[in-house]
Design a protein that fits this description.
Number of helices of chain A: 0
Largest sheet of chain A: 6 strands, mixed
Structural class of chain B: mainly beta
Order of helices and strands of chain B: EEEEEEEEEEE
Number of helices of chain B: 0
Structural class of chain A: mainly beta
Largest sheet of chain B: 7 strands, mixed
Oligomer: heterodimer
Shape of chain A: globular
Distance between the termini of chain A: 38 Å
Strand content of chain B: over 45%
Largest interface: A-B, 24 and 29 residues
Number of strands of chain A: 11
Strand content of chain A: over 45%
Chain lengths: ~110, ~110
């Protein structure tokens, strides 16, 4: 049974608009949440993270929102650029765990059209 | 600064054979984690090594084993290969157990 769900396999957005990628998790013991981006033929690259004591974290064009009661997090990219086209993975970490032991979702493929 | 490098990039093996995949961690990183990414899935944690000791293992059978060397490079060994072992194998290193992962580009293993 999937502990981390990214229910949208793909998302298409126009350049300059907002991209919103969603992720749901099942276990309230998860307390650290990350987003990774993956281009074809490359390994995933860390993008942004948030701990369970916060509900928002921003880094430039990227913002992650955490709703603990709904066990939901989202990644907002504003404005979206063609170079953002990639597969985005949501990942979670157990309380007291290490970042080496992450649970990943299946990913959402984002396409940003010029 | 050299990133995480994995070898080989592609590999084809026959069911029942054994395979060794190699990973050189990023300079200064003492922790290595291995992940398996099947087609259409997210990466799945296999195990982590910290200072040459296994420091956590995912839901993989014992025929998946690993090593970490004094220079913090690492190997993943898979015995008695099965068709379902066909996947992208990703190695990631980190400064310590709590720092973000830096992934290599992976080894694509095909078992026929």
């Amino acid at each position: 049974d999937q502990q981390v769900k990214q229910n949208s396999p793909s998302l298409s957005v126009q350049e300059g608009r907002i991209s919103i990628l969603n992720c749901d998790y099942t276990n309230s013991m998860f307390d650290y949440f990350l987003w990774y981006k993956k281009y074809p033929a490359e390994g995933p690259t860390f993008l942004i993270s948030i701990s369970s004591i916060k509900d928002k974290n921003e880094d430039g064009r990227f913002t992650v929102f955490l709703n603990k009661s709904a066990k939901h997090l989202s990644l907002h990219i504003v404005p979206s650029q063609p170079g953002d086209s990639a597969v985005y993975f949501c990942a979670v970490m157990n309380y007291g765990g290490s970042q080496g032991n992450l649970i990943f979702g299946k990913g959402t493929k984002l396409s940003v059209k010029p | 600064e050299t990133g995480v490098t994995q070898s080989p990039t592609h590999l084809i093996k026959t069911r029942g054979q054994q395979v060794t995949l190699r990973c050189s961690s990023q300079s200064g990183h003492n922790t290595v984690s291995w992940y398996q990414q099947a087609l259409g899935q997210g990466p799945q944690f296999i195990f982590q090594y910290y200072r040459e000791e296994e420091n956590g293992r995912g839901n993989f059978p014992p025929r998946f084993s690993g090593l970490q060397f004094p220079n913090y490079s690492s190997e993943l060994n898979v015995n008695a290969l099965e068709l379902d072992d066909s996947a992208l194998y990703l190695c990631a290193s980190s400064l310590d157990r709590y720092s973000p992962l830096h992934f290599g580009n992976g080894t694509r293993l095909t078992v026929t």
